Amino acid sequence: MKGIGTEMKGIGTYKTGERVDLFMLIKQATKGITTTGSPFMTLILQDKTGDIEAKLWDAKEEHEKMFQPASIVRVGGDVHDYRGRNQLRIKSIRPAKPDEPIQISDLVPSAEKSKEELYEELSPYIFEITNPNIQRITRYLLKQHREAFLVYPAATKNHHDYVSGLLDHVVSMLRLGKAIAELYPSLNKDLLYAGIILHDVGKVVELSGPVGTVYTPAGNLLGHITIMVNEIAMAAKELGIEGEEVVLLQHMVLSHHGKEEWGSPKRPMLKEAEILHYIDNIDAKMNMLNRALSKAEPGEFTERLFPLDNRQFYKPTFE
Amino acid sequence: MKGIGTEMKGIGTYKTGERVDLFMLIKQATKGITTTGSPFMTLILQDKTGDIEAKLWDAKEEHEKMFQPASIVRVGGDVHDYRGRNQLRIKSIRPAKPDEPIQISDLVPSAEKSKEELYEELSPYIFEITNPNIQRITRYLLKQHREAFLVYPAATKNHHDYVSGLLDHVVSMLRLGKAIAELYPSLNKDLLYAGIILHDVGKVVELSGPVGTVYTPAGNLLGHITIMVNEIAMAAKELGIEGEEVVLLQHMVLSHHGKEEWGSPKRPMLKEAEILHYIDNIDAKMNMLNRALSKAEPGEFTERLFPLDNRQFYKPTFE
Amino acid sequence: MKGIGTEMKGIGTYKTGERVDLFMLIKQATKGITTTGSPFMTLILQDKTGDIEAKLWDAKEEHEKMFQPASIVRVGGDVHDYRGRNQLRIKSIRPAKPDEPIQISDLVPSAEKSKEELYEELSPYIFEITNPNIQRITRYLLKQHREAFLVYPAATKNHHDYVSGLLDHVVSMLRLGKAIAELYPSLNKDLLYAGIILHDVGKVVELSGPVGTVYTPAGNLLGHITIMVNEIAMAAKELGIEGEEVVLLQHMVLSHHGKEEWGSPKRPMLKEAEILHYIDNIDAKMNMLNRALSKAEPGEFTERLFPLDNRQFYKPTFE
Amino acid sequence: MKGIGTEMKGIGTYKTGERVDLFMLIKQATKGITTTGSPFMTLILQDKTGDIEAKLWDAKEEHEKMFQPASIVRVGGDVHDYRGRNQLRIKSIRPAKPDEPIQISDLVPSAEKSKEELYEELSPYIFEITNPNIQRITRYLLKQHREAFLVYPAATKNHHDYVSGLLDHVVSMLRLGKAIAELYPSLNKDLLYAGIILHDVGKVVELSGPVGTVYTPAGNLLGHITIMVNEIAMAAKELGIEGEEVVLLQHMVLSHHGKEEWGSPKRPMLKEAEILHYIDNIDAKMNMLNRALSKAEPGEFTERLFPLDNRQFYKPTFE
Amino acid sequence: MKGIGTEMKGIGTYKTGERVDLFMLIKQATKGITTTGSPFMTLILQDKTGDIEAKLWDAKEEHEKMFQPASIVRVGGDVHDYRGRNQLRIKSIRPAKPDEPIQISDLVPSAEKSKEELYEELSPYIFEITNPNIQRITRYLLKQHREAFLVYPAATKNHHDYVSGLLDHVVSMLRLGKAIAELYPSLNKDLLYAGIILHDVGKVVELSGPVGTVYTPAGNLLGHITIMVNEIAMAAKELGIEGEEVVLLQHMVLSHHGKEEWGSPKRPMLKEAEILHYIDNIDAKMNMLNRALSKAEPGEFTERLFPLDNRQFYKPTFE
Amino acid sequence: MKGIGTEMKGIGTYKTGERVDLFMLIKQATKGITTTGSPFMTLILQDKTGDIEAKLWDAKEEHEKMFQPASIVRVGGDVHDYRGRNQLRIKSIRPAKPDEPIQISDLVPSAEKSKEELYEELSPYIFEITNPNIQRITRYLLKQHREAFLVYPAATKNHHDYVSGLLDHVVSMLRLGKAIAELYPSLNKDLLYAGIILHDVGKVVELSGPVGTVYTPAGNLLGHITIMVNEIAMAAKELGIEGEEVVLLQHMVLSHHGKEEWGSPKRPMLKEAEILHYIDNIDAKMNMLNRALSKAEPGEFTERLFPLDNRQFYKPTFE
């Protein structure tokens, strides 16, 4: 993820006591009332380098409408420590003006490579798929969802939760899939590559978009797995393809969470489906662990990581 | 289920010591070898009234081909007791001749009502669905799978596992659904009736057929729930229907097993889906319990019922 | 539950910015201290239409005694929004005077029908019980606990948690039980009706009363199931009744939570006990879902419902 | 348990190849048919020293009636090894004659001490109970069930599954309870001793009797815990005792299995109830482990012990 | 634990409204900021009799360095009630001076007996171990860790979480172990006593020290069980001891948590290991229950006890 | 695994009806008795290509001693089908003579590459470990256990359960570890390679040997994980190495089963430990799946695979 460890001076790099004057994106906005009855606002502000909780103590009625999520603001204030985390006391805040040279894409983290570069790396994998039915279905569905597929995150939080995070995740999985397929040549590369590419494409329906991402009603009611299994069926019908490849490709997507409790109504029953499940896990966990460990000091543990069974990970003192 | 408790003289009504001479259907056939090395065959033979394990001790090479599952035979022999269950020692056995007035449908248990009667009872429910999108999708899919839907069982064993068992189960559920919808008028009848009708239609793809039923590969790899959710998507596309009804109908089917561990990747999130799950359970359990209790004596427990958490049920001594 | 959706102007119908002047019941009262050290009180106030959190910022020593739970007050103040929920800033508050025409029963939600109407609907079911032993035990126990049974809630929260909620729940279950018994005539109505009527009567010992309901020590240490199973034993002894009916009736109550983990030391082993468990569930869930969905907008999800595995339910945009 | 390790020449001490001529009790009898169609009987025969599976190959029709469970027979035959366990090939067998000096009590294992000795050891504990309500209830119930309590086993298998096993278990638990109460003087001895004495008395209703023990219908439908909790309630009523002691004593019995999944609808909520659960466990496990280890050789593991999570235990080579 | 129930006038004995002037130890210190932006500190202060949350409202920059955990302060202020618990409003606070006659050991709770008395009670148990290999390993390891073993707590919270808590726990377990071994003479006392003594010695590496106890990195990464199993292996090597005793002693320690989920990679497979697990549990639970019940009033329940499955325990009204 | 799919004519390649005359190794031998009382033996016979159940119907007393597990025999007989699996009816059988050119290593399956080739592939990985402490410990332990490490299986069944299976598994994991470390350069190769090499070395103590492998008592009581963690501690002491590397290396081994329930008392808390767990799983599962799928026909499912949650895997009809 770009931003982590880069040199740019952003909100993620300020320390307690420093003064801030930055364009930032409002990620979340909540109205509050102090115990003595005066109104205030809590904003989560972000740029590419991180986010911070900010308090606007002297909130007016009009502020609520002015400072909505997904809008850009120019903010001045002081960073101080609140219960071990940085907090920003806002001194000045105003909406960005239309002619100011700043846009949302400047303020949200994104994959390290551009979406064009990533897609260029993905393309050859499609053409390595030799089974024509599998290749055609894969191409058809990628084409159909291309625009969203290039910019969506892979999740609302935890891993690859940034612009183009989905594509970033898929390309990383393809690299790993290729390495594994070379070591275990009995694996069918066609199924494995198509499975990797398609496994999460349903997220472009399940989630609302690349920024301020939430679940859609259809996402909640069906889930990205069911959505994508449906799309494979419809693609096959559209392309006039029948036969085992369709069912097996559906099974790859259907089973990739590995267990019923994790949302796959069928456990993997293909060698390639079993491996897809592992590749997905390894790549997601490496992403989470790298991020969490980048914030920890050598000789210390990370904070508890909820999606990793609430474990804390240790950062060794040697390299 | 027809046959239970009826007066017809069939294999289910013979007692130890009686001599049998009947047409029966071979449900299962296995070759064995005695501990002293001589070959024999174990056949499961059935007619409408039940089934029995039968031993053909003097099996010849040609017998294996002659006595295949799903073929009809004329069998003579003696019933004796083997570990508390009836067993048939075969004295004579031959394939039924083409001109003999017996067919498979005479030998397999089936719903008490004919499939035509059942379907006639089902039809009005479709026309009570007032939402046109829901009604059209339901009719389209019923029409498409009508032939199989009329004769398939609802399962390979446990409940409604007989010819037209699926239809029998659905009609019984509709009756119960209607009663519940009258008591809880906030329930949306359109969703409920359509959900009941469609929830298990995917079984006509998941299972192999009405007799000697096993799982198909697609059934194993995808399951009837996913299969039917796909079909709803394709029906909607075919009919040019868009909108919430499609997703909600898919959700009804998707969630009807109630929990991830039971094969529903989403738990019910519609009031009607929650109720559908209960109706399905009540009807299946009443079917299993009635069958098991019909074999138990008053004052005794049934055998352990695996799909009911291995419980035994008590049959009271009073009525 | 009366009050939901009715036209009466009560606390549940006020919006942010409105001024309130109402009699209300104190449901809960807690003393606090602001971060700057001044004392205040947090009250939960209710009337038939709902409840609201209220802050009394200038609390005096004497207020604590004056404003105790289960007492009636006259309150004036302003409604404002606090973290997405309504809150009342109290401007004036005083205990209700003895001669003011207001009593607790005017301020707590209750079943839609009166307890008399409900009991009248219940009575005929008792007389439909044809087995004299079962009928006599049922009548004896109802008579013994009649007074409390007419006014107790079915639970402290979640479902039927209002005055006469227990009776309301039981009558609703009887209606459903009757419908099911008609569809599945093999069910023994005597056991089913008696089981429905008695299953939760132990709550009149387990819980403290109809208002401000909490668990009693005996309720915590034994639970309503054990309490009622005991009472059946004692009733039978008192009435000189012996025989299977006593044990079966005890088993109906004992097993109605369905599983050990849910507090039934024996799972259902009678067909009627299995069905009682389902009827209890359906009626409780319909009550919870109707209430939660009445607060949600079409096209949105309810809040998370803890007793329904923390699920959110969707309210369709069409009817 | 008497018999284990004693010098008496009984069936438990014979080795492969030896000839047997003994009175034994038929514990179980099953009719079979060989793969070649000839009838035989499998008997489980026992005396105080153990049991053995026996085959009567030339079974006649009349044998089935002659050799019923719980009858005594005189048997001659040869011991041989069958799949690692001893088996008896019966050469001669006949029912014991009325005038032969042998009775069932001579053939079933029993506690090492006589029931009189055990009861004499138990009595003083009752009189150490100083709370009159607790003492009276305990005495009343022991008196009521004295006859059965003196001879019943504590279980049908696994631990203390022999004549007077229940009393043996209770006395052993009292010794342990006394030692613990001395080390932790805050424990209330009245509750602890009464809880130990009464905790399993419900078994005299749950189980069928001291020999050939099976579950009764009431035992299956209610369980010994519920049965005993009922009896405490009725005893208290009979004796005119009211008050907390009754509920606490019921809770002691109710919670002694420790968890809902293990049949206690309430977990222990009294310090003494928690300790009762441990004492019950320790004594039952010591009984099972001593028995299993007495059959194992030093340096080897016991067979898998199902009630101990299927573990195998190691017998050290040193003492 | 000394302090509970003693007469000494300490922080645990003050009531709301009283004025305090005491030496206390800072157990925890957190910086905060009020909703209006002014800094304050929250301190947890303790002496032998208990602890209290204290607020220092007018915190200065230098206070943070001055008032660090594990330092002693002289504090004046008022006790008031905050959400049902006592809180101290600090009026005056200063670090203790080097020449003031107060030290940490005066302010932390500790075992009722001195560590010397406890150790004197422990010693004879070592000499009752007759197996020379087991005795030598036990003595070697005790000697090696003696200093820490005498002062460490048995845990950071929940039970025996005070200075010398570990030794207190072990001695109490030895008393119980002796009583059990006398009742069940088949138990090997050598294994049992050595297992009790060594089972938690690994805590002197797992935890940071007797005061302000936290987990060390090695403690987190390996755990006290693995640490001690290693030490036994190394001790045996050092002492030139080989043979079964070493493995069995390791197994005693390895399995004492009883189950894999609780941190024992092997379940007990020795009778003595099974009993060790129970003794550890009984003693830890008695410690927790005595402490919790000492704070509850007769006729009431304790607060929820997290390490006892979140149960509440009842304190009877009679003794 | 050598043998699967090779051309050699061995027992794994015979079909029903064929006559066999081969040297084979007795893997297992059990004595039986037919239902008519005559003794027989059941042998499991193996060579490099598979194994078969064989019946010796006319067993004599002396046969039991002659035909012991792990001895070589010359066997003649006929292959026939028994319940869907091949069985051998023995016509002639005799122990191999000392001068016959056949040895155990000719008859047991083994890794495809020789142990020398495998070890040569392993060596460079050790020298890629740049941290001297980690490298020295790894080399020390490999050297100490080299002989056994070269020939032991990785398990008694399921995966890599053949001569040199452990080494084969480790080398395959190293290849995969290298590929992953290249894709995720933040991984510490020293920890990862050392963890892979050492993770299962404890099996050389846990298991009895390369042929006829069973668990040793120490293996049962401690397990290979604990054994190896001990050895790392002792190696470090021997080599005079202190510091974090020792603890981290122990943690790698300790946590490699991933969860407490699977025998790791600590879950992975190092990024490299998490990845080690995945690499171990992928390699073990590929081994099991390749073996199971090699026996299945295209278009069919494998048999149920117990260590893969009892799943069946599908073998596609296309490549």
UniProtKB/TrEMBL annotation, chains A, B, C, D, E, F:
Query: One GO molecular-function annotation for this sequence?
Result: exonuclease activity
| Signal sequence bounds | none
Which key words are in the record?
Answer: Exonuclease, Hydrolase, Nuclease
E.C. number, please? 3.1.-.-
Entries under InterPro entries matching the protein: HD/PDEase_dom, HD_domain, NA-bd_OB-fold, NA-bd_OB_tRNA, YhaM_exoribonuc/phosphodiest
Q: Which domain of life is it from?
A: Bacteria
Domain HD, residue spans: 169-285
Record-level GO BP terms: rRNA 3'-end processing
Residue ranges of coiled coil:
none
Family matches, as NCBIfam families: PRK13480.1
Q: Check the record and name the PANTHER family matching this protein.
A: 3'-5' EXORIBONUCLEASE YHAM (PTHR37294)
Write down what this protein is called: 3'-5' exoribonuclease yhaM
Tell me the lineage of the source organism: Bacteria, Bacillati, Bacillota, Bacilli, Bacillales
Q: Which gene encodes it?
A: yhaM
